[in-house]
Here is the input.
Amino acid sequence: MTKKFAMLMIALFFCALPMFAQGGGAAAGGTNSLVPLTAGFSMAIAAGLVGLGMGRAVGGAVEGMARNPGAAKVIQTAMILGLVFMESLALYVIVIIFVKVQ
Here is the structure.
């Protein structure tokens, strides 16, 4: 049953591909007015999720430091490295927005 379902999904996927083909207006140099709007939504979602992730990371690190003050330096270093990686997500999104919305 699962194999038949998987094959059906693959067949439907390949049948739906022409539906997403680019239309004549956009291919002929038309502008898409929704690009800035979607770029703003994507930045808002990325910034919100990065903020939530950073809050949870800092909260966990502070809790870990409170439970084991001897490991505070190692926990703080790992927390800062994690925060840098999380912030890079928002920076990547804003770079993509600047490249896409000219």
